[in-house]
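Before the break, one more example. Copy the sequence into your notebook; we will annotate it together after we see the structure.
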Amino acid sequence: MKLDLYNLTNEKIGEVEVSDEVFGAETRPYLFHEVVKMQLANRRRGTHKGKTRSEVSGGGKKPFKQKGTGNARQGTSRSPHMVGGGRAFAKRNRDFSYSLGKKKMRAALCSALSMVVSEGRIKVVDNFDLAEIKTKTAANTLNTLNVARAIIVDSKNGEQTYTTLNNDNLRLSVRNLQNYKYLRPEGVNVYDILHYGSVIVTRAGLEKLEARLKG
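Here is what the structure looks like once it is written out:
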């Protein structure tokens, strides 16, 4: 499969060959559901906490005498049905995170990338190097590329072959743009692809992304 290659002035300058295994896979929405559900669960902090009857203060004294008041007998004012009492089934701190299999995660990401390719919502650019950190410059360039909302995938080579570094001029220039998000190839995920709808990826980022999903 071949994808069109553009420069930052939105002119087509060639084509790049990509793997059908990664960018031509079958679209499987049920995998999107499973992976996005997992990603959102893993984001939950789980710090909610309520107090049970044993944790609220007071309540050591019997609130009123056993008989003669016309009320139901009470042994403590901290029972769940009393005003100021503890909760019967109070929320506790918990970890909501869980994981899915690597093959399923890879298949879901390939499916999401293949979907944006088939719908023409991916744009491959030769590079996205900015001379300085300037949000206005990045916004103007993105307007020129004619992509209103997207994740932007780019990286620079790290010291080791399996690591990448941020393109900091680009990352810092787009971090305040509401409709764009910078990601390195290893950070590309199903939720962000579906949330932003489109992908802008540099040639270098495309190679790293493809190597990640084929390996």
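The CA atoms of residues 106 and 215 lie 10 Å apart. DSSP finds seven helices and eight strands in the chain. Try to locate both features in your own notes.
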